[in-house]
């Protein structure tokens, strides 16, 4: 009987018939060397979706995790092994992967050089890249960079003319005096634009690009009330786009604006400072949400704390209450029932006047916390009714605070109430509410995927494994497209709930789809 061919789990080459190992002779020979140093990997190693997504978060810990889990290695590498290459203990590497990333540029450069990460994929410049740029570019070169504060550390991202041209910025290059295809500067005085070519930026026109660049480059001159308003518009655009493009693509511009605010808030006129810090609080709260969607609670907490600090300094008391609400919602992500309750109560009882929509959302969050800690359903429904009645008054709200316009609608309230019914042990009612809102089609693509995952959870708990798997498979596809780690994690819980039915086609297909999504 002909033996089926077997392939090396490392390089993919065909194994010899007498080779009982999982790797070919060459890879087995190279294996001991990897105890001392990382393997030499092909460029394609870095081009997988998981590696690209990790790099796009600007978090070296996520890069370490994606590197360790890469299928190229044959099996996941241990934290001890990666740590030995990087000069870190297992505990230190674990803290980097699960907490805030290192802030020192020298450490980031060293880690990138050891692992051999291509410089064009990094969010910082390697020394050899800077030297190469100095040696090969005759005359004054065009520089496009983004000035950003990433986890408290300033970062400059250089972009060459070819990259800018590839992203449709030919008109901008012409304005700056860049000639032909050479990328050399012409006679005009080159200007450094603090921009990054990303989906969040390339949709802007030339005037908008130059406005953002000027504001980021020269805070003393340009960070006036008009530019504060302009940055507010850009944050609004990022919030609108987030539901379709995902958090990894929305983060760069948000972090760039927050970097400018953090760096220059002390340099502006006193009458502008308060508005700038209030905008920073709004942007930091949004950054916290983006990191929540990336399943990075440590970074989310950092930005929520920064939002609270800036809101306090700006005298923006409603924003302080709103940040406490968001911390309560993050506690729900982490299944921490008591913190859900205490943060919601703190938001309700603080010395601030919240706009009607925010009060309604806080009241609904309090109901969710009560359901989680096992309060009677009648009490939970009474609080839910209070939230519904409060929201009904929103059209008569005369509060002019920007939070008065938050996107908390009747459908949003129903989705939160569905979560309450799930926690209160009434999953069938929850599934019906989730389904009704999703069917109306008013959710963003990312949110539709997330709440399909919530509905799949409710269906699984209701003993409907086939329907839960069908809905879960729809959510997996959306989660992949929008890079929503939060949705994937929720679906992993769904797959766990469906374990008793794992032999059925639907649950089996869901597990396989989730396995593929983690590669």
Describe this structure in words.
The protein is mainly alpha-helical and 519 residues long. Among the domains are: 1-32, no CATH class; 37-118, 434 Repressor (Amino-terminal Domain) (Orthogonal Bundle), CATH 1.10.260. 63% of the residues lie in helices and 4% in strands. The protein contains 26 helices and five strands. It has a three-stranded mixed sheet with strand order 2-1-5. Strands 3-4 form a two-stranded antiparallel ribbon. Strand 3 and strand 4 (184-185) form a beta hairpin. It is globular. Residues 29-34 and 130-212 have low confidence and may be disordered.
Poorly predicted runs of 5 or more residues: 29-34, 130-212
Fraction of helical residues: 55-70%
- Number of helical segments? 26
Strand order of the largest sheet: 2-1-5
The CATH C-level class name of the domain at 37-118: Mainly Alpha
| Beta-strand share of residues | under 5%
Q: Judging from the principal axes of the Cα atoms, what is the shape? A: globular
CATH-level-2 architecture of the domain at 37-118: Orthogonal Bundle
Radius of gyration: 25 Å
Describe the sheet with the most strands: 3 strands, mixed
Structural class: mainly alpha
The tally of beta strands, per DSSP, is 5
Mean pLDDT: 77
The name CATH uses for the topology of the domain at 37-118 is 434 Repressor (Amino-terminal Domain)
- What distance lies between the first and last C-alpha atoms, to the nearest angstrom? 34 Å
């Amino acid at each position: 009987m002909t033996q089926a061919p077997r392939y090396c789990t490392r390089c993919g080459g065909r194994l010899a018939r007498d080779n009982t190992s999982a790797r070919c002779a060459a890879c087995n020979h190279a294996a001991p060397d990897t105890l001392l140093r990382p393997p030499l990997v092909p460029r394609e190693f870095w081009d997988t979706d998981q590696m690209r997504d990790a790099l796009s978060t600007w978090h070296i810990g996520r890069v370490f995790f994606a590197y360790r889990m890469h299928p190229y290695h044959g099996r996941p590498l241990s934290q001890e092994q990666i740590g030995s290459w990087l000069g870190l203990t297992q505990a230190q590497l674990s803290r980097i992967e699960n907490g805030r990333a290192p802030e020192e540029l020298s450490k980031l450069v060293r880690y990138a050089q050891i692992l051999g990460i291509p410089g064009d994929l990094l969010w910082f410049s390697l020394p050899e890249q800077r030297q190469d740029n100095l040696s090969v570019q005759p005359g004054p070169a065009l520089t496009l960079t983004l000035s950003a504060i990433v986890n408290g550390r300033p970062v400059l991202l250089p972009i060459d003319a070819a990259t800018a041209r590839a992203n449709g910025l030919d008109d901008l290059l012409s304005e700056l005096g860049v000639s032909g295809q050479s990328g050399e500067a012409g006679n005009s005085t080159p200007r450094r634009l603090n921009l990054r070519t990303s989906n969040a930026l390339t949709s802007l026109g030339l005037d908008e690009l130059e406005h953002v660049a000027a504001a980021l480059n020269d805070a003393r001159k340009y960070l006036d009330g008009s530019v504060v308003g302009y940055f507010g518009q850009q944050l609004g655009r990022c919030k609108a786009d987030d539901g379709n493009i995902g958090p990894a693509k929305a983060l760069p511009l948000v972090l760039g604006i927050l970097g400018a605010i953090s760096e220059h808030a002390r340099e502006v006129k006193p009458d502008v400072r308060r508005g700038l810090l209030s905008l920073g609080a709004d942007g930091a709260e949004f950054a916290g949400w983006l990191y929540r969607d990336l399943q990075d609670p440590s970074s989310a907490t950092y930005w929520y704390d920064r939002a609270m600090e800036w809101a306090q300094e700006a005298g923006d008391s409603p924003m302080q209450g709103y940040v406490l609400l968001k911390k309560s919602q993050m506690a729900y992500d982490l299944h921490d029932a008591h913190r859900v309750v205490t943060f919601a109560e703190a938001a309700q009882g603080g010395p601030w006047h919240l706009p009607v929509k925010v009060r309604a959302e806080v009241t609904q969050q309090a109901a969710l916390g009560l359901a989680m800690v096992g309060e009677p359903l009648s009490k939970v429904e009474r609080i839910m009714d209070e939230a519904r009645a409060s929201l009904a008054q929103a059209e008569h709200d005369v509060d002019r605070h920007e939070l008065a316009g938050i996107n908390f609608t009747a459908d949003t309230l129903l989705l939160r109430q569905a979560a309450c019914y799930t926690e209160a042990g009434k999953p069938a009612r929850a599934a019906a509410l989730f389904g009704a809102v999703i069917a109306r089609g008013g959710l963003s693509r990312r949110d539709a995927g997330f709440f399909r995952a919530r509905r799949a959870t409710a269906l699984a708990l209701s003993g409907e494994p086939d329907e839960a798997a069908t809905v879960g498979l729809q959510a997996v596809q959306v989660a992949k497209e929008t890079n929503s780690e939060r949705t994937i994690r929720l679906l992993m819980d769904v797959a766990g709930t469906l374990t008793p039915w794992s032999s059925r086609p639907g649950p089996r297909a869901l597990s396989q789809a989730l396995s593929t999504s983690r590669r």
